[in-house]
Amino acid sequence: MTESLLSVRNLTTEFHLPDGRIARALEDVSFDVLPGQTIGLVGESGCGKTTTLMSVMRLLPASGRITAGHALFKGRDLMQLSEQQMRSVRWREMAIVFQGAMNALNPVMKVGDQIREPIELHNLMDRDAAEKRVGELLEMVGIQRSRRDQYPHQYSGGMRQRAMIAMALACSPSLLFADEPTTALDVMIQAQVLDLLKEIQKHLGLAIVMVTHDLGVVAEVCDSVVVMYGGKVAEYASADAIYNEPQHPYTRRLLASFPDLIRPSDTLASIPGTPPRLTDLPTGCRFHPRCDVKVEACDKETPVLKMIEEQSAEGGAIHCAACHLLHGEEAKFQ
Ligand SMILES: Nc1ncnc2c1ncn2[C@@H]1O[C@H](COP(=O)(O)OP(=O)(O)O)[C@@H](O)[C@H]1O
Ligand SMILES: [Mg+2]
To answer: Which ligand approaches the C-alpha of residue 52 most closely?
Structure first.
């Protein structure tokens, strides 16, 4: 079995709200990322996807606190590292393209200088070598070297997003987090950015955790998928299993609400209602108020993740889902 690059176990994160209340944004989140694999974190807005990445990177705002769980990266628990140690991991070994990143470039700094910054910050090479690397990175993401000295406003949205990807790759990380990397782009450009990520992954062999609310993106690039709902894992499986044998009612509803290129259907059913507010969580299963197959236990007991299929020999994701309608053993993560 392939050893995981990142093993997230029982990650639990809370935010202290200004009014004194505590919002538990993540509860008991577990999943694995194998080297060179792409894993999708999916779910509607507010389900905890960004918080998962920020918790693992230890980049939560001051109001956020990780109260339980581990994130083993290359055998080290990131939750136990000092901030100093964490700084040597961040960007060099794991990097992130933030949600909305393409609008986060510094408007008064040349794009090439911004890409060079992380390389210099980590003292990876001298000026000349760093400059050469900037050229390579630009080329890698499909931006002409001649545009190195231009400013962000001279770039299109897709180019700015690609520049952010170049910046994240500057120090050759083995794990890349991409938070909704295509959401703000138009459809043609979305496809280009996805192709770019796929290509980069093929060439560099890095692992990608892709956050998206778009199951079409997942189908195209992901090996396995974590479906999140209300800060918890609703279902976790290989992408194949998520598409062909979804077990959680929420996953099924998500799939039904997306246009499917393989099996087109004219009936796109959006999911009525909205995800729960964290300060006002329903009892029992968090999805039960919106679930059309709920049974008696659903508003009383919180369902545990049940094992549907053990890990495959190739080391693919186990298949587990948290629903009272499922039977079987509680899923155990190694
Ligand atoms: N800084 C914060 N302070 C308080 N609550 C937050 C903060 N950031 C996120 N949250 C809450 O955590 C939940 C998950 O948010 P987020 O991880 O951004 O979701 P997603 O990325 O899936 O849209 C949301 O309910 C959000 O309100
Ligand atoms: Mg988000």
So the answer is: 1
